[in-house]
Amino acid sequence: MPETVLGYAAPAKDILIEPAVLQGRIAELGKQIEIDYAGQELVLVCILKGGVLFLTDLMRTIHIPHAIDFMAVSSYGIGARETTGIVRIIMDLERDIRGKHVLLVEDIIDSGRTLHYICDVLRAREPASLKICTLLDKYERREVEVPLDYVGFHIPNEFVFGYGLDLDELYRNLPFIGVVRD
Ligand code: IMP
Ligand code: MG
User: Is the pTM for the entire model greater than 0.70?
Assistant: First the structure.
């Protein structure tokens, strides 16, 4: 039986970021985005699946009109915890982003390879601007330079789960960020 953490079935691991701390920071990011994009045609592009909880909470704090769209990529082998470096688009955007102000919404930047690839692909479609908003930045692991415009939390080099991030596809539902310490 898995342990219960804050009423959720979860592996018995440490909580790195508590729900209230997450939500407080997300509200701050939303407020900043609202100011920065006022009067512009904003499209939030969520990278599935990890970014989905972040997107839905973030967009509720952005009180200016904006569209959302989704993209799914795969960069890990099945069950692996490291990016292979080979990124595949599994699901592409529905709408054309030409001339739009695109803000990518990601769960975590690790090596930076996934985001670097996505940015190359999207830049070729000529958006008016392309920026990145990530909830977590595991900066010690960076292999490829990616400019981050909005960062929720800088975190140490540990494998995390919860709030969109999975442990072998489970625990994305948790309202906190947990950390795997082996
Ligand atoms: P990158 O290409 O190495 O930057 O990997 C980015 C992707 O790897 C993220 O979008 C996540 O889906 C996944 N990832 C990286 N670190 C973690 C982690 O600690 N927990 C869960 N997923 C992670
Ligand atoms: Mg991801």
Answer: yes
60-103: pLDDT as tens digits:
999 999 999 999 998 765 556 666 667 899 999 999 999 999 99
49 vs 45, 90, 129, 159, 172, CA distance in Å?
A: 12, 11, 23, 17, 9
- Domain assignment of residue 120, given as a range: 26-162
Does the active-site annotation cover 110? yes
Total number of domains in the chain: 1
2, part of any domain: no
CATH number at residue 66: 3.40.50.2020
Which protein residues touch ligand 1 with a CB less than 6 Å away? 50, 75, 83, 106-115, 138, 159-161, 165
